[in-house]
Amino acid sequence: MKLPISVIIPLTKSREPFFYNYCLPSVEANNPQQIIIEDDEGSAPYKRNLGASKATQPYLFFCDDDTILSKNCLPKMFQAIHAKEEVFAYSHYAVIVTKEEAHPIGKNFIHQSKPFNAKALQKNNYIDTMSLLKTQSFPGFDENLLGYQDWDLWLRVVNSGGTGAFIDDLLFMKFCFDKGISSDRIRHREAKEAVRSKHQLAL
User: Fold this and answer.
1) What CA–CA distance (Å, rounded) separates 21 from 39?
2) Each residue of 43-70: pLDDT tens digit?
């Protein structure tokens, strides 16, 4: 039986070979009801919002095109929040650094998340974009931010009364193929400070 989830994927042209050979098959293996691939011009937040406007299911999952999901990723997240008060579910994940310059850490690592805590979220983001969210609680991504749109999203969800379900498991792998905002320390810092300023968060 298909899960009542709309998976939205902002596709980058340079990643098409990886996406169609690895990412998309892993998404399909999770059996979501709807898969929306957005390959229009524009930023990832724009594509995610565009995809969300086409979603028909009561749950949303924003999947990056450089990712491979475990076979039980979506089922576990769905089980964690279905018919429960939490509005989103999240987990640990692995980061595979294919080029040393593609990530500040320069090597493979495990991104360890932690149990949901609203106060801790105000200090640092520990919830990835790739988390399952009830559609009715989705406020949209802020396309004007330079980065950390996921942190801003979860802060707004939580400020509206939403809570998260932490899954103590490694449910997907992210591959770093090229330089992103996380590899540019100045942009990284500026993006983080923009979110702090927007939400009036203390350092």
Assistant:
1) 16
2) 999 999 999 999 999 999 999 999 999 9
d(CA 82, CA 89): 10
Residue 63's pLDDT is 98
Q: Terminus-to-terminus CA distance in the chain, angstroms? A: 46
From 110, 88, 78, select the one nearest 2 (Cα to Cα).
Answer: 78
Q: Which residues pair with 134 in a beta bridge?
A: 59
Structure tokens at 144: 């004007």
The single-letter DSSP state of residue 137 is G
Rg (alpha carbons) of the chain, rounded to whole number: 16
The amino acid at 115: P
Q: Quote the tokens at residue 178.
A: 């090229």
Query: Which is more confident, 129 or 98?
Result: 129
Q: Which two tokens stand for residue 169?
A: 């498991």
The reported pTM is 0.91
